[in-house]
Amino acid sequence: MIRLSNLSKSFGEMHAVRSLDLDIEAGQFFSLLGPSGCGKTTTLRMIGGFEKPSAGVILLGGKDVTYEPPNKRDVNTVFQSYALFDHLSVWDNVAFGLRRKGVAKAEITQRVGATLEMVQLGELGTRKPRTLSGGQRQRVALARALVNRPRVLLLDEPLAALDLKLRRQMQIELKQIQREVGITFIFVTHDQDEALTMSDRVAVMNNGVVEQCGTPEDVYERPATRFVASFMGTSNLMPGVYADGAVTLDGGLTVNVGQRSFADGTAVSLSVRPEKIWLSDFEDGMTRVRGTVRETVYSGPTTTYLIDLVPGVRVAVLEQNTARSRNEDRWAGGETVDLGWRTADCLVLS
Amino acid sequence: MRKPRTAFAFTVLFFVLLYLPVAVVVLFSFNSQKSLTVYEGFSLRWYEAFFADEALIESLGMSLRVSLVAMVGSLVLGVALALGLVRARGKLGLYAGFIMLVPLITPEIVTGVASLLLFKGLGIPLSTMTVMIAEITFSISYVTVILRSRVAALNREVEEAAIDLGATRWQALLLVTLPALLPSILASGVLIFALVFDDFVLAFFTTGVTPQPLSVRIYSAIRFGIQPTINAVGTLMLLGSIALIGLALLIPRFFGRRGGLSILSGE
Amino acid sequence: MRKRVSLWSWLLLPGTVWMSIFFITSLLLVTALSFGTTDDLGTPHFGNSLSNWAEVFAPVYRTVILRSLGYAFITAVLCLLIAYPVAYAIARHGGRWKNALIAAIVVPFFANYLVRMYGWAVVLSDEGPLLGLARKLGAPDDWRILHTGFGVIAGLVYGFVVFMILPLYAAMERMDSAVIEAGRDLYGGPLRTFLFVTVPATRQGALAGLVLVFLPAMGDFVSAQFLGGPDQIMIGNLIQSKFFDGQNWPLGSALTMLLMIVLLIAMAGYLRRARKDEQEAWQ
Which residues of A touch B256 (CB under 8 A)? Predict the structure, then answer.
């Protein structure tokens, strides 16, 4: 559907995007995830036609659109600032694109009405954007783009300006709308929770390159690089040396990880996600270590323990407050505790 | 904080002296006698005299026409310049930015002399049109300076959104960018109208013999001695100016934005 | 995006062409004619004579030019002295009347300049209210303001003081009131605080104001005409008379160019000063 091949963009000396290759299938909810300055917005702007690539090709449904202007592409954008037309009513904002394309009046009325209904703004057509709340303005921006039924909708951090609660609600709503209309969404965000919650596929970007592209489960459970592992939540990266199916951590502790494709003596990082570490009811065959609790952080449904395995090697452990539901059931700082994890949950990253 | 009394007293004195000349003009415009020092009773005779004077009315008409044309002309050229100066890259932009600033440091008398020489050199007879051309030239810089900062403050994404939705660049400019600038454009237009209507020096150098702009007529009248009719004209012009400034200050509010003095102080 | 660049450049074009023809070309014409001559009928011709420039520096004209410089300079300084307390009172103690007071200063400025000067002349005249009051307070009968240098300067100050107040007011508005409070602690009295804290902090505004007053004052001819006498004429009056009464356009052009050069030098001095201030502020 969309193919970016060897796409690059430089601003003077600054290389924003370097030889990017991506395939995005039709009807997907696709996220570009990364920290600010990683090139995700530049990539989006090149797909939208707002930046001309320094090199490479953009194919949209097999057609080369690399140098087509934005108004010649079957692509629409929801901007981070919403970029609403303040002098026009909500209705006229949404009708803007259809009017430019010379769609018949009756059809405009029908399509604008239906789209406003879909984003739950049916009553607000006559209002000016300035008089709306942040969430409502966001919906207008969405409706204004969707009403054109583009092949691809580009969304540039559209939820960044909303407060947390509204944001969660809009995440679900956006996903529902995407399923309903079946349009390919390319969604730029720096929030990994948002990307994991909403996407069919995620491309994690850093320094202008895609570090990993896959399903949310792929990038979270099987990060390909240290950067992906650390960007996707807490990952307990422990430096050490690999040899013969085990990693010897810097503190002297040796942990069995199973045979991996590293040469003996390779410097690696061992990673075990906090929720993959058990503190009781261990299974047979688990890697078992002892540690000292340094900190206990209670946060409602879960508790996070910071535990030193050996001096200098500290891991975070996340536990549901299900079995140990009272404060006195939980470990406190200074206490010794047993830890265990499945060998399969060990990530070894170069 | 303690109030600085000396500064307060001084400020009061300043305001008294600032308004005294204006008050004298307004007061004596209603004087029943010709004297400018003795007020002898209320009368509208100088206003009647003004409205009965066909030559003065013709001058008024000319001043209004000149102001209107200068306003429209300098807005068209100035808005385009402001947009170009903020957005365009390259040598033309640098040159345009430079020649925009020169008029601001040029005294009006120099602009007046230069315009006079140009019209004579080109063989254009001095007339209402030459005044209009000179006033447009004089006003473009003001419009550009005021609007340049407003253009720079615009959200570029709004224009991109219009293009994204299928507008051409010109359509985006006309349908989205200009409407966003409209309050500032109108406000600066009103200011230019007031400035041009009151302008004397440029008009003096570039006008033909008949008709002459109102301010040039006022100049001749004052030069040739006491003319109580001028008090009436001056009072009417003052009222007009106050109305225009008020309008310029209120325009942003019509569009639901904060009005402000920033336009007047040129910030 | 090559297309976009051309759109914006197209927008630049009409205004740039207009200003090039009607402003830059006309200034070049003045420069050219300043080297010209007049024939016996008074018709100007272009040429390459330096006689106008020699004449400009003859004693008669030199006196007028130096007088103009003096008047404009004194006017700028007087405006500064007047504007400081006024801007200070409004900015620091104006409260919610601030905007209204500033508007009240701007409004008369928008009244017709000639009418204002005319009203000012009436106020300052021998029979006017100001001298009347002075005589009642015991001033000698032969005190007069009109037709003196002081009258011309009074006119220039009245005409252009608003250009000093606005930048000063803006500079004071930007000042942090905590700085003033701190100055209070450091220096004690309000006058000392004003001199050692407010004045240095608003220097840039004052500098801008000096230029904004000096430029139009230097080129003015209305004030000298309405409020001065034959001994108070300024360079603007000379230029005006060369173009209208005397019909010596080449000489008038040379005077005009001289005025422009003086102002460009003043402007260059200001820009250097302002840049130096900026650099110091960075350090």
Answer: 128, 130
Report the alpha-carbon distance of residue C194 to residue C183 in Å, rounded. 9
Share of chain A above pLDDT 90, in %: 68
Low pLDDT (below 70) residues in chain C: 1-5, 188, 281-283
Cα–Cα distance list, A239 to A269, A343, A349, C53 (Å): 4, 17, 9, 84
CATH of the domain at B126: 1.10.3720.10
B31 backbone dihedrals φ, ψ, rounded to 5°? -75, 140
Structurally, chain B folds into a number of domains equal to 1
Residues C107-127: tens digit of each pLDDT? 888 888 999 999 999 899 888
Chain A, chain C: beta-carbon pairs less than 8 Å apart:
3
Distance (Å, whole) CA C5 – CA C95: 47
Which chain B residues are Cβ-neighbours of A142 within 8 angstroms? Answer: none
Cβ burial, residue A90 (10 Å; 0-12/13-18/19+): buried
> What does each C-alpha distance from C43 to C28, C46, C56, C247 come to in angstroms?
19, 10, 19, 8
Number of neighbours of residue C180 by Cβ within 10 angstroms:
18
Q: Give chains near C: 3+ CB pairs under 8 A.
A: A, B
Q: Please write the tens of the pLDDT for every residue from B143-164.
A: 999 899 889 989 999 999 999 9
Question: Does residue C104 contact residue C111 with C-beta atoms inside 8 Å?
Answer: no
Give the whole-angstrom CA distance, residue C277 versus residue C271: 10
B170, pLDDT greater than 80: yes
| Per-residue tokens: A284 | 């047979």
Select from A42, A73, A77, A154 the residue whose CB has the most chain B CBs within 10 Å, as the one to mutate to test that interface. A77
Q: Answer whether residue B192 is part of any domain.
A: yes
Compare all CA atoms of chain A with the CA of C2 and give the residue at the minimum distance. A52
Q: What is the β-pairing status of strands A152-156 and A184-189? A: parallel
DSSP letter at A343?
A: G
The secondary element (H helix, E strand) that includes residue B77 is helix B54-87
Q: What is the mean pLDDT of residues B173-182?
A: 94
Report which of B135, B122, B99 is spatially closest to residue C16, judged by C-alpha positions. Answer: B99
Adjacent-strand bridge partners of A236: none
Distance between terminal CA atoms of chain C?
40
Measured between alpha carbons, how far is residue C217 from residues A46, A327, C259 in Å? Answer: 55, 82, 11
Nearest Cα residue to A146 out of A117, A115, A187: A115
ipTM: 0.88
Instruction: Quote the tokens at residue A139.
Output: 């919906």
Question: In this structure, are residues A143 and A158 in contact, taking their beta carbons and an 8 Å threshold?
Answer: no
Left if phi > 0, otherwise alpha if psi is -120 to 50, otherwise beta: which for A281? Answer: left
> At the fourth CATH level, which superfamily is domain A2-221?
P-loop containing nucleotide triphosphate hydrolases (3.40.50.300)
- Closest by alpha carbon to A220, among A256, A274, A167? A274
Tokens, residue B71: 């306003």
Of C35, C68, C243, give the one whose Cα is nearest residue B113: C243
CATH number of A234-349: 2.40.50.100
Question: Which among B157, B164, B179 has CB closest to A81?
Answer: B157
CA angle A141, A147, A151 (to 5 degrees): 100
**Do residues A148 and A96 lie in contact, with contact meaning Cβ atoms separated by under 8 Å?**
no
User: Residue B174 is part of which domain span?
Assistant: 40-265
**Residues A102/A96, Cβ–Cβ less than 8 Å:** no
Domain with CATH 3.40.50.300 in chain A: 2-221
Give the minimum alpha-carbon distance from B44 to chain C in angstroms, rounded to a whole number.
19
CA–CA distance, A86 with A129 (Å, rounded to integer): 6
For domain C58-282, the CATH superfamily is MetI-like (1.10.3720.10)
Global pTM exceeds 0.90: no
Q: Would strands A302-310 and A287-299 be described as parallel, antiparallel, or unpaired?
A: antiparallel
With CA atoms as reference, the chain C residue closest to B99 would be C19
Domain ranges of chain C: 58-282
